[in-house]
Protein backbone atom coordinates (compact mmCIF):
# COMPACT_ATOMS: atom_id res chain seq x y z
CA UNK A 1 0.00 0.00 0.00
CA UNK A 2 1.33 3.40 -0.92
CA UNK A 3 1.10 6.41 1.35
CA UNK A 4 2.64 9.82 1.79
CA UNK A 5 4.20 11.73 4.65
CA UNK A 6 3.93 15.45 5.21
CA UNK A 7 6.74 17.37 6.83
CA UNK A 8 6.19 20.11 9.42
CA UNK A 9 6.66 22.69 6.69
CA UNK A 10 3.64 21.32 4.92
CA UNK A 11 5.66 20.02 1.94
CA UNK A 12 4.71 16.52 0.86
CA UNK A 13 7.64 14.11 1.09
CA UNK A 14 8.22 11.10 -1.12
CA UNK A 15 5.59 8.34 -0.84
CA UNK A 16 6.11 5.56 1.66
CA UNK A 17 6.03 2.18 -0.06
CA UNK A 18 4.82 -1.08 1.37
CA UNK A 19 7.34 -4.00 1.52
CA UNK A 20 6.00 -5.38 -1.75
CA UNK A 21 6.23 -1.94 -3.33
CA UNK A 22 9.82 -1.51 -2.17
CA UNK A 23 10.69 -4.92 -3.57
CA UNK A 24 9.10 -4.05 -6.93
CA UNK A 25 11.00 -0.75 -7.00
CA UNK A 26 14.25 -2.57 -6.21
CA UNK A 27 13.62 -5.06 -9.05
CA UNK A 28 12.94 -2.21 -11.49
CA UNK A 29 16.09 -0.42 -10.39
CA UNK A 30 18.19 -3.59 -10.70
CA UNK A 31 16.87 -4.25 -14.19
CA UNK A 32 17.57 -0.65 -15.20
CA UNK A 33 21.13 -0.84 -13.83
CA UNK A 34 21.65 -4.13 -15.65
CA UNK A 35 20.40 -2.57 -18.89
CA UNK A 36 22.83 0.31 -18.43
CA UNK A 37 25.70 -2.05 -17.73
CA UNK A 38 26.02 -0.78 -14.15
CA UNK A 39 25.32 -3.99 -12.27
CA UNK A 40 27.97 -6.69 -12.21
CA UNK A 41 25.37 -8.96 -10.63
CA UNK A 42 23.75 -9.13 -14.07
CA UNK A 43 27.01 -10.59 -15.39
CA UNK A 44 26.89 -13.26 -12.72
CA UNK A 45 23.36 -14.11 -13.82
CA UNK A 46 24.48 -14.31 -17.46
CA UNK A 47 27.38 -16.56 -16.47
CA UNK A 48 25.07 -18.86 -14.49
CA UNK A 49 22.70 -19.08 -17.46
CA UNK A 50 25.60 -20.00 -19.77
CA UNK A 51 26.79 -22.62 -17.28
CA UNK A 52 23.26 -24.03 -17.12
CA UNK A 53 22.98 -24.22 -20.91
CA UNK A 54 26.35 -25.95 -21.24
CA UNK A 55 25.52 -28.26 -18.32
CA UNK A 56 22.41 -29.48 -20.17
CA UNK A 57 24.07 -29.63 -23.60
CA UNK A 58 27.17 -31.38 -22.20
CA UNK A 59 25.52 -33.51 -19.52
CA UNK A 60 27.34 -36.63 -20.73
CA UNK A 61 30.76 -34.96 -20.39
CA UNK A 62 32.91 -33.75 -17.50
CA UNK A 63 31.81 -30.13 -17.94
CA UNK A 64 29.73 -29.79 -14.78
CA UNK A 65 32.41 -30.95 -12.34
CA UNK A 66 34.52 -29.18 -9.76
CA UNK A 67 37.68 -30.26 -11.57
CA UNK A 68 36.58 -28.54 -14.76
CA UNK A 69 35.59 -25.34 -12.95
CA UNK A 70 38.99 -25.25 -11.22
CA UNK A 71 40.55 -25.60 -14.66
CA UNK A 72 38.51 -22.59 -15.81
CA UNK A 73 39.90 -20.60 -12.88
CA UNK A 74 43.45 -21.62 -13.81
CA UNK A 75 42.89 -20.74 -17.46
CA UNK A 76 41.48 -17.29 -16.68
CA UNK A 77 43.92 -16.26 -13.94
CA UNK A 78 46.39 -14.60 -16.31
CA UNK A 79 43.52 -12.87 -18.13
CA UNK A 80 42.22 -11.50 -14.83
CA UNK A 81 45.69 -10.32 -13.80
CA UNK A 82 45.94 -8.34 -17.05
CA UNK A 83 42.30 -7.18 -17.12
CA UNK A 84 42.53 -5.39 -13.75
CA UNK A 85 45.27 -2.90 -14.75
CA UNK A 86 43.60 -2.59 -18.15
CA UNK A 87 40.60 -1.16 -16.30
CA UNK A 88 42.87 1.61 -14.98
CA UNK A 89 44.34 2.36 -18.41
CA UNK A 90 40.97 2.54 -20.17
CA UNK A 91 39.40 4.49 -17.29
CA UNK A 92 42.18 7.08 -17.64
CA UNK A 93 41.22 7.54 -21.28
CA UNK A 94 44.10 5.58 -22.83
CA UNK A 95 44.67 2.19 -24.48
CA UNK A 96 47.44 -0.39 -24.09
CA UNK A 97 47.62 -2.85 -26.99
CA UNK A 98 51.06 -4.13 -26.00
CA UNK A 99 50.09 -5.73 -22.69
CA UNK A 100 49.86 -9.27 -24.08
CA UNK A 101 53.17 -8.85 -25.94
CA UNK A 102 54.94 -8.21 -22.62
CA UNK A 103 53.96 -11.73 -21.54
CA UNK A 104 56.43 -13.84 -23.58
CA UNK A 105 59.36 -11.42 -23.21
CA UNK A 106 59.04 -11.25 -19.42
CA UNK A 107 58.73 -15.03 -19.31
CA UNK A 108 61.92 -15.40 -21.37
CA UNK A 109 63.80 -12.93 -19.17
CA UNK A 110 62.83 -14.85 -16.05
CA UNK A 111 63.64 -18.24 -17.59
CA UNK A 112 67.09 -17.08 -18.71
CA UNK A 113 67.95 -15.58 -15.31
CA UNK A 114 66.50 -18.32 -13.09
CA UNK A 115 69.49 -20.75 -13.22
CA UNK A 116 72.01 -18.09 -12.16
CA UNK A 117 70.01 -15.67 -10.02
CA UNK A 118 67.28 -17.82 -8.45
CA UNK A 119 63.51 -17.50 -7.98
CA UNK A 120 63.62 -14.06 -6.33
CA UNK A 121 65.86 -11.90 -8.50
CA UNK A 122 64.69 -13.34 -11.83
CA UNK A 123 60.97 -12.53 -11.33
CA UNK A 124 61.82 -9.06 -9.99
CA UNK A 125 63.86 -8.30 -13.11
CA UNK A 126 61.01 -9.55 -15.31
CA UNK A 127 58.51 -7.32 -13.49
CA UNK A 128 60.95 -4.39 -13.74
CA UNK A 129 61.11 -4.96 -17.49
CA UNK A 130 57.32 -4.71 -17.61
CA UNK A 131 57.43 -1.47 -15.65
CA UNK A 132 60.06 -0.10 -18.05
CA UNK A 133 57.88 -0.92 -21.08
CA UNK A 134 54.92 0.79 -19.46
CA UNK A 135 57.02 3.84 -18.63
CA UNK A 136 58.14 4.11 -22.26
CA UNK A 137 54.55 3.78 -23.48
CA UNK A 138 53.26 6.36 -21.04
CA UNK A 139 56.10 8.82 -21.60
CA UNK A 140 55.78 8.77 -25.38
CA UNK A 141 52.02 9.16 -25.09
CA UNK A 142 52.07 12.10 -22.69
CA UNK A 143 55.27 13.94 -23.65
CA UNK A 144 54.78 13.90 -27.42
CA UNK A 145 50.97 13.77 -27.39
CA UNK A 146 50.95 10.67 -29.55
CA UNK A 147 47.77 8.58 -29.26
CA UNK A 148 48.40 5.63 -26.95
CA UNK A 149 46.78 3.38 -29.55
CA UNK A 150 49.63 4.17 -31.97
CA UNK A 151 52.40 3.99 -29.37
CA UNK A 152 51.33 0.64 -27.93
CA UNK A 153 50.64 -0.79 -31.37
CA UNK A 154 54.25 -0.06 -32.29
CA UNK A 155 55.45 -1.48 -28.97
CA UNK A 156 53.39 -4.60 -29.67
CA UNK A 157 55.35 -5.20 -32.85
CA UNK A 158 58.70 -4.48 -31.15
CA UNK A 159 58.03 -6.90 -28.31
CA UNK A 160 56.81 -9.63 -30.65
CA UNK A 161 60.05 -9.29 -32.57
CA UNK A 162 62.10 -9.47 -29.36
CA UNK A 163 60.23 -12.60 -28.25
CA UNK A 164 61.00 -14.29 -31.56
CA UNK A 165 64.60 -13.12 -31.58
CA UNK A 166 65.61 -14.17 -28.05
CA UNK A 167 65.63 -17.92 -28.68
CA UNK A 168 64.76 -18.18 -32.36
CA UNK A 169 61.22 -19.52 -31.64
CA UNK A 170 62.53 -22.17 -29.23
CA UNK A 171 61.05 -22.70 -25.77
CA UNK A 172 63.05 -22.59 -22.53
CA UNK A 173 62.21 -25.16 -19.87
CA UNK A 174 61.70 -23.89 -16.31
CA UNK A 175 62.58 -26.44 -13.62
CA UNK A 176 63.00 -24.36 -10.45
CA UNK A 177 60.52 -25.91 -7.95
CA UNK A 178 60.28 -22.82 -5.72
CA UNK A 179 59.40 -20.59 -8.68
CA UNK A 180 56.85 -23.07 -10.03
CA UNK A 181 55.14 -23.44 -6.66
CA UNK A 182 55.05 -19.73 -5.84
CA UNK A 183 53.73 -18.59 -9.22
CA UNK A 184 50.98 -21.11 -9.58
CA UNK A 185 52.35 -24.28 -11.07
CA UNK A 186 50.93 -26.19 -8.11
CA UNK A 187 47.98 -26.01 -5.71
CA UNK A 188 47.89 -25.01 -2.07
CA UNK A 189 45.78 -27.88 -0.79
CA UNK A 190 42.50 -27.76 -2.74
CA UNK A 191 43.02 -24.12 -3.74
CA UNK A 192 44.93 -23.29 -6.95
CA UNK A 193 47.75 -20.83 -6.31
CA UNK A 194 46.69 -19.11 -9.53
CA UNK A 195 43.35 -18.33 -7.89
CA UNK A 196 45.17 -16.70 -4.97
CA UNK A 197 47.17 -14.52 -7.37
CA UNK A 198 43.96 -13.47 -9.16
CA UNK A 199 42.20 -12.56 -5.92
CA UNK A 200 45.20 -10.58 -4.64
CA UNK A 201 45.41 -8.53 -7.84
CA UNK A 202 41.63 -7.97 -7.87
CA UNK A 203 41.64 -6.90 -4.20
CA UNK A 204 44.51 -4.45 -4.72
CA UNK A 205 42.90 -3.03 -7.86
CA UNK A 206 39.48 -2.76 -6.21
CA UNK A 207 40.81 -0.87 -3.19
CA UNK A 208 42.92 1.47 -5.33
CA UNK A 209 40.12 2.34 -7.74
CA UNK A 210 37.22 2.59 -5.32
CA UNK A 211 38.74 3.85 -2.08
CA UNK A 212 41.84 5.94 -2.76
CA UNK A 213 42.57 9.42 -4.19
CA UNK A 214 44.70 7.69 -6.84
CA UNK A 215 41.67 5.82 -8.15
CA UNK A 216 39.58 8.98 -8.23
CA UNK A 217 42.39 10.73 -10.07
CA UNK A 218 42.40 7.99 -12.71
CA UNK A 219 38.65 8.35 -13.25
CA UNK A 220 38.79 12.15 -13.24
CA UNK A 221 41.57 12.06 -15.84
CA UNK A 222 39.53 9.82 -18.12
CA UNK A 223 36.29 11.72 -17.61
CA UNK A 224 37.60 15.24 -18.27
CA UNK A 225 41.39 15.76 -18.47
CA UNK A 226 41.16 19.56 -18.60
CA UNK A 227 38.92 19.77 -15.55
CA UNK A 228 41.15 17.25 -13.76
CA UNK A 229 44.21 19.45 -14.43
CA UNK A 230 42.39 22.53 -13.14
CA UNK A 231 41.60 20.51 -10.01
CA UNK A 232 45.30 19.94 -9.40
CA UNK A 233 45.56 16.39 -10.75
CA UNK A 234 48.74 15.63 -12.66
CA UNK A 235 47.02 13.86 -15.51
CA UNK A 236 50.22 12.95 -17.37
CA UNK A 237 51.62 11.25 -14.30
CA UNK A 238 48.32 9.40 -13.79
CA UNK A 239 48.43 8.07 -17.36
CA UNK A 240 52.08 7.01 -17.08
CA UNK A 241 51.37 5.16 -13.83
CA UNK A 242 48.38 3.42 -15.39
CA UNK A 243 50.56 2.32 -18.33
CA UNK A 244 53.26 1.06 -15.94
CA UNK A 245 50.68 -0.95 -14.00
CA UNK A 246 49.33 -2.40 -17.23
CA UNK A 247 52.71 -3.62 -18.48
CA UNK A 248 53.57 -5.01 -15.04
CA UNK A 249 50.29 -6.92 -15.18
CA UNK A 250 51.45 -8.40 -18.50
CA UNK A 251 54.81 -9.31 -16.95
CA UNK A 252 53.12 -10.99 -13.98
CA UNK A 253 50.85 -12.91 -16.36
CA UNK A 254 53.98 -14.12 -18.16
CA UNK A 255 55.37 -15.48 -14.88
CA UNK A 256 52.08 -17.22 -14.11
CA UNK A 257 51.98 -18.82 -17.54
CA UNK A 258 55.61 -19.84 -17.21
CA UNK A 259 55.03 -21.59 -13.88
CA UNK A 260 51.81 -23.18 -15.13
CA UNK A 261 53.32 -24.67 -18.28
CA UNK A 262 56.86 -25.20 -16.99
CA UNK A 263 58.41 -23.35 -19.93
CA UNK A 264 58.79 -19.93 -21.54
CA UNK A 265 57.60 -19.73 -25.13
CA UNK A 266 57.13 -16.94 -27.66
CA UNK A 267 53.48 -18.02 -28.03
CA UNK A 268 52.55 -17.22 -24.41
CA UNK A 269 49.77 -14.65 -24.27
CA UNK A 270 49.70 -14.03 -28.02
CA UNK A 271 45.92 -14.47 -28.22
CA UNK A 272 45.08 -12.85 -24.87
CA UNK A 273 44.66 -9.22 -25.93
CA UNK A 274 41.10 -9.74 -27.16
CA UNK A 275 40.11 -11.59 -24.00
CA UNK A 276 41.69 -8.96 -21.73
CA UNK A 277 39.86 -6.07 -23.37
CA UNK A 278 36.64 -8.05 -23.57
CA UNK A 279 36.80 -8.84 -19.83
CA UNK A 280 37.34 -5.18 -18.92
CA UNK A 281 34.66 -3.81 -21.25
CA UNK A 282 32.09 -6.48 -20.45
CA UNK A 283 32.72 -5.76 -16.78
CA UNK A 284 31.52 -2.17 -17.15
CA UNK A 285 34.62 -0.17 -18.04
CA UNK A 286 33.71 2.54 -20.56
CA UNK A 287 35.95 2.97 -23.59
CA UNK A 288 35.41 6.72 -23.34
CA UNK A 289 37.08 6.74 -19.92
CA UNK A 290 35.93 7.92 -16.52
CA UNK A 291 34.17 4.70 -15.58
CA UNK A 292 35.66 1.40 -14.43
CA UNK A 293 34.88 -1.72 -12.47
CA UNK A 294 37.54 -4.11 -11.17
CA UNK A 295 35.02 -6.64 -9.87
CA UNK A 296 33.28 -6.43 -13.23
CA UNK A 297 36.58 -7.24 -14.96
CA UNK A 298 36.96 -10.34 -12.77
CA UNK A 299 33.45 -11.52 -13.60
CA UNK A 300 33.95 -10.70 -17.28
CA UNK A 301 37.13 -12.79 -17.29
CA UNK A 302 35.34 -15.74 -15.70
CA UNK A 303 32.44 -15.33 -18.14
CA UNK A 304 34.81 -15.55 -21.11
CA UNK A 305 36.54 -18.54 -19.52
CA UNK A 306 33.25 -20.37 -19.02
CA UNK A 307 32.24 -19.67 -22.62
CA UNK A 308 35.58 -20.75 -24.08
CA UNK A 309 35.64 -23.89 -21.96
CA UNK A 310 32.19 -24.91 -23.11
CA UNK A 311 33.02 -24.25 -26.76
CA UNK A 312 36.16 -26.37 -26.48
CA UNK A 313 34.28 -29.30 -24.92
CA UNK A 314 31.60 -29.01 -27.59
CA UNK A 315 34.38 -29.44 -30.13
CA UNK A 316 34.66 -26.04 -31.80
CA UNK A 317 38.05 -25.30 -33.30
CA UNK A 318 40.16 -22.26 -32.56
CA UNK A 319 38.75 -20.17 -35.46
CA UNK A 320 35.22 -20.54 -34.10
CA UNK A 321 36.43 -19.61 -30.61
CA UNK A 322 38.07 -16.47 -32.00
CA UNK A 323 34.87 -15.55 -33.81
CA UNK A 324 32.86 -15.99 -30.62
CA UNK A 325 35.36 -13.84 -28.70
CA UNK A 326 35.13 -11.13 -31.37
CA UNK A 327 31.33 -11.17 -31.24
CA UNK A 328 31.49 -10.72 -27.46
CA UNK A 329 33.77 -7.69 -27.82
CA UNK A 330 31.49 -6.09 -30.43
CA UNK A 331 28.50 -6.54 -28.15
CA UNK A 332 30.44 -5.17 -25.18
CA UNK A 333 31.57 -2.11 -27.13
CA UNK A 334 27.97 -1.44 -28.19
CA UNK A 335 26.88 -1.60 -24.56
CA UNK A 336 29.77 0.63 -23.55
CA UNK A 337 28.86 3.20 -26.20
CA UNK A 338 25.21 3.14 -25.18
CA UNK A 339 25.91 3.63 -21.49
CA UNK A 340 28.84 6.06 -21.76
CA UNK A 341 26.77 8.95 -20.47
CA UNK A 342 25.40 7.18 -17.44
CA UNK A 343 26.83 7.69 -13.98
CA UNK A 344 25.82 6.00 -10.78
CA UNK A 345 27.09 3.16 -8.71
CA UNK A 346 28.01 -0.32 -9.71
CA UNK A 347 29.06 -3.33 -7.75
CA UNK A 348 32.83 -3.08 -7.61
CA UNK A 349 33.47 0.16 -9.45
CA UNK A 350 32.99 3.89 -9.45
CA UNK A 351 32.50 6.56 -12.03
CA UNK A 352 32.80 10.29 -12.48
CA UNK A 353 30.38 12.44 -14.42
CA UNK A 354 31.72 13.63 -17.75
CA UNK A 355 29.69 16.86 -17.71
CA UNK A 356 28.91 19.03 -14.66
CA UNK A 357 25.39 19.93 -13.67
CA UNK A 358 23.97 23.29 -14.77
CA UNK A 359 25.57 26.03 -12.73
CA UNK A 360 28.29 23.75 -11.39
CA UNK A 361 31.94 24.70 -12.05
CA UNK A 362 33.57 22.53 -14.71
CA UNK A 363 36.37 21.59 -12.32
CA UNK A 364 33.97 20.35 -9.66
CA UNK A 365 34.00 16.73 -10.72
CA UNK A 366 32.27 14.49 -8.24
CA UNK A 367 32.88 10.81 -7.70
CA UNK A 368 31.29 8.09 -5.62
CA UNK A 369 33.27 7.77 -2.43
CA UNK A 370 32.68 4.06 -2.30
CA UNK A 371 31.22 1.37 -4.54
CA UNK A 372 27.50 0.90 -4.49
CA UNK A 373 26.81 -2.15 -2.33
CA UNK A 374 24.05 -3.78 -4.25
Structure write-up:
The protein has 374 residues and is mainly α. It has two domains: 1-35; 39-351, ABC transporter involved in vitamin B12 uptake, BtuC, CATH 1.10.3470. It has 13 helices and six strands. The chain has a two-stranded antiparallel sheet. Strands 2-3 form a two-stranded antiparallel sheet. Strands 5-6 form a two-stranded antiparallel sheet. It is globular and about 70 Å long.
Task: State the major sheet.
Answer: 2 strands, antiparallel
User: What structural class should be given to the helix and strand makeup?
Assistant: mainly alpha
Q: Tell me roughly what share of residues is in helical segments.
A: 55-70%
Spatial shape: globular
Strand content: under 5%
Order of helices and strands: HHHHHEHEEHHHHEHEHHE
CATH class of the largest domain: Mainly Alpha
Which parts are unreliable, with pLDDT below 50 for 5 consecutive residues or more? Answer: 1-14, 340-349, 353-374
- How many distinct helices? 13
Strand order in the sheet with the most strands: 1-4
For this structure, the quaternary state is: single chain
- CATH topology name of the largest domain, in short, is ABC transporter involved in vitamin B12 uptake, BtuC
Number of strands: 6
Q: How large, in whole angstroms, is the Cα Rg? A: 22 Å
CATH architecture type of the largest domain: Orthogonal Bundle
Can you give the mean pLDDT? Answer: 81
Query: Could you tell me how far the N terminus lies from the C terminus, measured between alpha carbons in angstroms?
Result: 25 Å
**Overall domain count:** 2
